[in-house]
């Protein structure tokens, strides 16, 4: 069974978003806008936030892919 293309696309987009945010923190560290301690905290926050957002999106997508309960339409 193949992985749906939407899952692969969404996962890649979240990986790119996380990498860009980590890059921004790294750049801020190099320019001196963030101290070493603050940059380390920022790295942890970005990783946890990205994984959490991806997991929320993934669960929502999976629940809508094959719903267990189907709508019942009443005829009038």
Q: What is the arithmetic mean of pLDDT?
A: 92
H and E order: HH
Distance between the termini: 41 Å
* Cα shape: elongated
What is the makeup of the main sheet?
none
Q: Identify the quaternary structure here.
A: single chain
- Please tally the β strands and state the result: 0
Tell me the number of helical segments per DSSP (H or I, 4 or more residues long): 2
User: Would you tell me the structural class of the helices and strands?
Assistant: mainly alpha
**Percentage of residues in helical conformation:** over 70%
| Rg value | 19 Å
Strand fraction band?
under 5%
Low-confidence segments, given as residue ranges, are none
Report on this structure.
There is one protein chain. Helix 1 packs antiparallel against helix 2. The longest helix is centred in the middle third of the chain and has 30 residues, at 36-65. The protein has two helices and no strands. The protein starts with a helix and ends in an 11-residue tail after the last helix. The protein is 75% helix and 0% strand. It has a domain at 26-62. It is an all-alpha fold and 76 residues long. The radius of gyration is 19 Å and the shape is elongated. Keywords: Hydrogen ion transport, Ion transport, Membrane, Transmembrane, Transmembrane helix, Transport. The chain crosses the membrane at residues 12-32, 44-63. Belongs to the V-ATPase e1/e2 subunit family. It is found in: Membrane. Its main location: membrane.
């Amino acid at each position: 069974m193949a992985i749906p293309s939407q899952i692969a696309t969404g996962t890649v987009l979240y990986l790119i978003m996380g990498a860009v945010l980590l890059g921004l923190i790294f750049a801020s560290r190099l320019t001196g806008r963030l101290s070493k301690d603050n940059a380390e905290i920022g790295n942890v926050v970005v990783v946890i936030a990205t994984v959490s957002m991806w997991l929320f999106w993934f669960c929502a997508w999976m629940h809508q892919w094959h719903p267990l309960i189907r709508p019942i339409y009443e005829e009038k």
